[in-house]
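> call design_seq(struct)
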């Protein structure tokens, strides 16, 4: 498949504050067109499904994408069709919990209009399941910058054993991000062009 070039110009990310990074990446994601996203999402899905941590899992914790995040809809369908149990996060107060879904009919708008499992979904309690993590900026040091709510950091503090795979587009990668004491490192970062695994 022919490589697609990024249609948005994104200046270097180094030296920017977390707020500036968030603003820069949100603007760049907003400028993406649907065609390039489909191509990139397909590549990410292929790379993820080739990882033994995902390939051999009977349960995967994922997320439902919004606002031009790396797309997960086809990934979720693929996992479910293989008989893998899929759980998505639901925000409850200041915490986040995962619930099993059986398909798109189980998902409804939730916190900040983000798609979440509906009230009939059962809690997921597989504390060794791999987790596919969204975000805005990802460093090659395996730290991430999310949206500022701290939900994933608190979740991983509560359930630290999960194997953590962040997915993003290539322009969301930088050499390192400014981390704080509570920030959690990813085990793997998957983009359309590469898979970085922490040693």
């Amino acid at each position: 498949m022919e490589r697609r070039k990024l249609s948005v110009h994104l200046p270097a990310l180094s030296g920017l504050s977390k707020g500036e990074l968030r603003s820069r990446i949100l603007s760049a994601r907003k400028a993406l067109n649907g065609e390039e996203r489909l191509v990139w999402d397909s590549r990410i899905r292929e790379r993820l499904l080739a990882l033994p941590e995902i390939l051999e899992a009977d349960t995967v914790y994922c997320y439902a994408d919004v606002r031009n995040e790396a797309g997960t809809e086809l990934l979720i369908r693929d996992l479910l069709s293989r008989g893998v149990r899929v759980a998505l996060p639901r925000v409850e107060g200041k915490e986040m919990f995962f619930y099993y879904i059986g398909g798109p009919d189980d998902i409804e708008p939730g916190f900040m209009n983000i798609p979440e499992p509906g009230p009939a979904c059962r809690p997921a309690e597989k504390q060794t399941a791999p987790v596919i993590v969204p975000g805005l900026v990802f460093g090659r040091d395996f730290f991430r910058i999310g949206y500022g709510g701290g939900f994933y950091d608190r979740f991983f503090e509560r359930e630290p054993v999960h194997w953590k795979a962040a997915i993003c587009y290539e322009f969301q990668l930088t050499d390192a991000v400014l981390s704080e004491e509570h920030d959690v490192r990813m085990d793997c970062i998957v983009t359309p062009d590469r898979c970085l695994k922490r040693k």
